[in-house]
Every structure is written in structure tokens, then in C-alpha cells.
Design goal:
Shape: elongated
Strand content: under 5%
Number of domains: 4
Radius of gyration: 33 Å
Largest sheet: 2 strands, parallel
Helix content: 55-70%
Number of helices: 15
Structural class: mainly alpha
Strand order of the largest sheet: 1-2
Distance between the termini: 66 Å
Length: 325
């Protein structure tokens, strides 16, 4: 798989110890959780994330790197702490391109942009030797480096980031998974230059237009849609089916209907026609039962000699009369 080859090449380039063992464990994990003949893009995203978490845990254990969790309420300085930790990693490394090997993931574009801005602004301040910067003094204590050393390193790191900005990996989890999916595009049968559409309404419109464009080409689909249009005209409704298709298609976007929609994934047009016949037969039986109930209700009222007008606006008898119709 091209996607796996890309990941393994990345591991080797990063000179991670015991890469062969990581490959073995990763392959076992992938083949254990993936059915390559039946999986959706959403499932693949989850599997990829689990996959990366698995081998990254192995890497951290091998390098004896502590795993730290920062838990705090809103506005208490989480971003400040994360930026400080990011800068600390940059300054403690002898490699000025270490930022290329760091991945920071946030939930929103705003948060990602804010974190990038803070990191770059602090590096710029450090490179100028701004002694009023609280972050500079704090990192000097934590890293054991002098202000002069941090000033020198910050200038070189900032210059390297600006020259290789595409490798400055601070992004949302959506863009991260999208990048991974692009690596697996060949395996998924997707175009290598595919784009993610964030407007579901436009997707549904294009899909409906595509379905309608097949009228006259797909015989089975054509017959089904023509019959539907005829049924609408018999019910004194507009023959235009596009509005109905749009209304039905919105169910695909609702989480509450997802479970029921999944049950229909393997159904074909003949299956729906058989279901339609069963529903029509059941409807005839149900309507007949309603008529019988209506007749019985009116018979009881008449046998008791009660005038229809004695009921509030004659609503109760009218209720049974509607059944009788």
C-alpha cells in the first residue's frame, strides 16, 4: 500500500530506533482492524488515528519520553503552557529544523492560527533579546540556557521556520486526517487530487442532478422515477421530483437516521418495488378496517338515537364519517 510505504519511509527518515519492530506491530494492527474490501472513509480515519497513536506510544516508550497531560478550565492559560512546551522542545534541540518533526493538533482553525502566531511572536522577541518577555525568562530557567544562547537559537529557528513554513505542523485534527487520507487515496480508490467539500447542501444538489441526469440511460432507475412522477400527478401534486429527492436526501445528513439508512445500503430498486407492493397491500387492509370502524361508530350513534348536532360541532360523528369515506 502506497500509504503505508509513505508512513514507514517517514519513520526511517526520522531515524527512530527499532523501525523494523514498529513496522511489524503496525502491520499487525492495520490488518487486524481493516477489511480492505469493505471500509468507509470515516472508519479509515479512525483506524489511521489509532494506528499512529499505537506506534507513537512505542516510540515514546523507547525514548523514555514522559507523557504529560495538562488539564485546566477555559481561560486559565492552556495555550500559554502548550506554546511554552513547544518552544522548550525547539530550544533544547541542537537541530534548528526540529520543528519539522513536531506535530501539534488543535480542534479549530482559530486555535491553530493563534498558536502559530504566539510561537512566531515569541521567537521574534527572543531573537531580539527582549528581557521583558516573561516566556523568555521562564524558558531560560527551565532549559538552563542563557538569554544570549536562546537569542542566538531563536533567530536561527525562526529563519528556518519562515523558509520552510509548510513544514510548520500546527493544524486542526480535520486537516491532519485529511492529509492522511490523501496518502491512502490510491488504496481507497479516490482521485489523488480530491478535495473535501464542507457544504453538504451543494453535495446533495450535485448528487440529485446526477441521479436525474441518468433518466433515459438507466432503464430501471428511469422506470422508478417516472412511476413516482405519475403517482404525484394522480395525487394532484407537482410532477417535479427534484424537491422530493432533496427532502429525502437530507436524511443522509441526520445522525438520528444513520442507523436506519445503513440498513438500506445493500438494497436495490427491485427490493424497494417489492416493499412498495407490500405497503400498498397493507394500506388496503388498513383502510378497509378504518371503514368498518367508521360504519360501526355511526351505527352505534344512530341506534342510540343521538343527533349529530348534539355533539360539539358534530366533531365525533364527522370523525367516523371520515373513516367511512
Amino acid at each position: 500500500m502506497f500509504g503505508l510505504y509513505t508512513i514507514f519511509s517517514f519513520l526511517e527518515q526520522e531515524e527512530i530506533r527499532n523501525v523494523t519492530r514498529i513496522k511489524e506491530i503496525s502491520l499487525i494492527f492495520i490488518f487486524k482492524h481493516l477489511n480492505f474490501y469493505d471500509f468507509s472513509t470515516v472508519k479509515l480515519q479512525k483506524i489511521i488515528l489509532l494506528f499512529f497513536i499505537t506506534f507513537m506510544q512505542i516510540i515514546y516508550v523507547q525514548n523514555q519520553t514522559p507523557f504529560q497531560v495538562y488539564s485546566a478550565s477555559a481561560g486559565s492559560g492552556k495555550t500559554f503552557t502548550l506554546v511554552k512546551e513547544y518552544l522548550r522542545v525547539l530550544l533544547q534541540s541542537e537541530d534548528e529544523n526540529i520543528f519539522k518533526k513536531i506535530l501539534a493538533i488543535t480542534f479549530t482553525n482559530k486555535a491553530a492560527g493563534e498558536m502559530k502566531e504566539r510561537i512566531l511572536n515569541n521567537l521574534l522577541d527572543f531573537s531580539k533579546g527582549n528581557a521583558d518577555n516573561d516566556m523568555l525568562r521562564l524558558l531560560s530557567v527551565e532549559t538552563g540556557q542563557t538569554i544570549r544562547t536562546i537569542k542566538y537559537k531563536s533567530g536561527r529557528i525562526l529563519n528556518s521556520i519562515l523558509q520552510n513554513y509548510t513544514s510548520f505542523h500546527i493544524k486542526t485534527i480535520d486537516s491532519f486526517t485529511n492529509k492522511l487520507i490523501k496518502s491512502f487515496a490510491f488504496d481507497l480508490g479516490l482521485p489523488l487530487d480530491f478535495d473535501v467539500e464542507l457544504d453538504p447542501e451543494s453535495i446533495l444538489k450535485e448528487t440529485i442532478d446526477l441521479v436525474i441526469s441518468k433518466i433515459g440511460i438507466d432503464k430501471e432507475l428511469t422506470n422508478a422515477l417516472v412511476e413516482f412522477a405519475k403517482q404525484k400527478t394522480l395525487e394532484d401534486k407537482s410532477w417535479d421530483i427534484s424537491r422530493d429527492l432533496k427532502e429525502i436526501s437530507t436524511l443522509l445528513l441526520k445522525e438520528n437516521d444513520a442507523f436506519q439508512i445503513q440498513k438500506l445500503e445493500d438494497k436495490q430498486i427491485p427490493d424497494f418495488k417489492n416493499l412498495e407492493k407490500k405497503l400498498k397491500a397493507r394500506r388496503i387492509v388498513t383502510e378497509k378496517q378504518f371503514v368498518e370502524i367508521g360504519e360501526k361508530g355511526l351505527e352505534i350513534i344512530n341506534n342510540l338515537g343521538i343527533e349529530h348536532k348534539e355533539f360539539y360541532y358534530s366533531q365525533f360523528p364527522k370523525f367516523f364519517q371520515e373513516f367511512d369515506r
